[in-house]
Predict the structure of (Fe-S)-binding protein.
Amino acid sequence: MKIGLFIPCYVDQFYPQVAKATLTLLEQLGCTVDYPLNQTCCGQPMANSGYAHLAGGCDDNFIRNFAGYDYVVSPSGSCTLHIKQHLHGHNAATDNDASAIRGRVYELTEFITDVLKVESLPAKNQVHPHRVRPLRVGLHQSCHGQRGLHLSPMSELVGNQGVSKPARLLKMVNGVELVDLDRRDECCGFGGTFCVTEEAISAKMGKDRVADHLRHNVDVITGVDVSCLMHMQGILRRQESKVEVKHISELLVN
């Protein structure tokens, strides 16, 4: 299979190590991966702010870069969901390409679980390789990934929703102890442009989310969206906490 690696603009600019970890992980799992050099923002910030009509150039550029791949894989649940739901072309030909891309774009843990159907990982605990006890990891299940992509069960619903795909993969990593949180699927408050327009509410929600992890003495907070992790990382730094923040790709890669 031929995979196009979709790296959101904020990952490229602020967390390039996440892009590298994602590429390495996919290659370790036997995938042939290509990185289209002309990719840029998918248009999600504009769409979330009510300006989807101005994101046509982003759509066209995304289609030019990713049409023709068997799969498009990204280390960001929110950007993946945006493409799944909102990518459109502007004529018959590009709209057909957009429809095909929407059907084969996957968030990283979703792809590893549902397409590759991985049952074991070569990952070792690389965060603290000389630890004498397991690394206590708190998993932040971001809203887009959970309620949009259905990466994990939702506490407000009853019935069988399957297992958390990120949690299932983390449990395959030697030296990692996945911690049970009090409110495992609560929003961190980032919300894209929400954190700019409603910064006080966003910050309070983030502090509450971080406090849950701290109560359980985690060493690392992880998740599938660097945007949520960036929000919580900023709070941790202001609190002068030693808790680290890592994208899930950095824990799964060997």
About this structure: The longest strand covers residues 135-140. The chain has two domains: 2-115, 135-252. The mean pLDDT is 93. The beta strands are 2-5, 32-34, 71-74, 105-107, 135-140, 176-178, 220-223, 244-247.
